[in-house]
Amino acid sequence: MSEENIVPFEQPKSHSRFPGTPMKSDLVEKASEIISDPLVLINMVSKRVRQLNSGRSPLIPTRPSMGAADIALTEIIEGKIKLADPAPAAEA
C-alpha cells in the first residue's frame, strides 16, 4: 500500500472550558444508580456537556481537575439536574 492511500487519523481538538481529566468511573457508577438506563444517562450527560461548553455555568462548585462530563455527572448525583417527566399523552 502506498503512502498516498494512507489517511492520517487526528483526534479533534477539545473546545471545552473544562479541560479536566477523562470521566471518573466512580461518578458514572453513582449516576447510573440514579438514572438506570445507560442510553438516557449518556444523553443527559452529553446535553449538559454541550450546555457547559457553550457557556452555561456549573450548578455545583468545581475543581480544576473536573472535566465537563464530571461536572454533569456530579450535577446528576447531587440532584441539580433531573430527567423531565414525559408529557401526558393526549386522550383521544
From TrEMBL:
Keywords: DNA-directed RNA polymerase, Nucleotidyltransferase, Transcription, Transferase. Residues 1-24 are annotated as: Disordered. SUPFAM superfamilies: RPB6/omega subunit-like. InterPro entries: DNA-dir_RNA_pol_omega, Pol_omega/Rpo6/RPB6, RPB6/omega-like_sf. Coiled coil: none annotated. It comes from the Bacteria. Its EC number is 2.7.7.6. One of its GO terms (cellular component) is DNA-directed RNA polymerase complex. It catalyses: RNA(n) + a ribonucleoside 5'-triphosphate = RNA(n+1) + diphosphate. Promotes RNA polymerase assembly. Latches the N- and C-terminal regions of the beta' subunit thereby facilitating its interaction with the beta and alpha subunits. Belongs to the RNA polymerase subunit omega family. This is DNA-directed RNA polymerase subunit omega. It comes from Luteolibacter soli. The lineage of its organism: Bacteria, Pseudomonadati, Verrucomicrobiota, Verrucomicrobiia, Verrucomicrobiales. The gene is rpoZ.
